[in-house]
Request: fold
Amino acid sequence: MDRTVIAYVIYLFVSIGLTVWVARTLSRNGRVFLADVLHGNEKLADAVNHLLVVGFYLVNLGFVALYLSGDETIEDTRGIFEALSTKLGVVLLVLGVMHLGNVYVLNRIRRRGVMEREQLPPVAPQEWIAPASRA
Reply:
C-alpha cells in the first residue's frame, strides 16, 4: 500500500476519534450550562445541546475532510510522521478553537441569564413613594 494512503488512513482515524471525543465532552459538560441558562428547562437544554453538537460535528468533520488532501507524495516513514504531525496539529488547533468558542458562547449566555435574574428585586415593592419635590 502507498505510504500516502497509510498517512491518510491514520489521519482520518485519529482526527475523527478526536472530534468525537471533544464533541462528547462538550455535550456532557455543556448541558449543565444550558440547563442553568434556560432556567431548568431540561427538554430545551437537551435540544439546544444536541443542535450544538451536530453543528460541531459538521464544522470539524468538514474541515478534516477538506484538509485531507496533500500536495506531496510521502516517500518514507519519516515523511508519514511529518505529514501526520502537521495535519493533526492543525486539526487539534481547530478543535481547540472550536471548543474555546463554544465555552465562550455558553459562558456569555449564562452570564446574561444571571444578570437578568439579579435585576429582579428579591421582594416585591410594598408601596410607592413619590419623589420629594425640590424647592
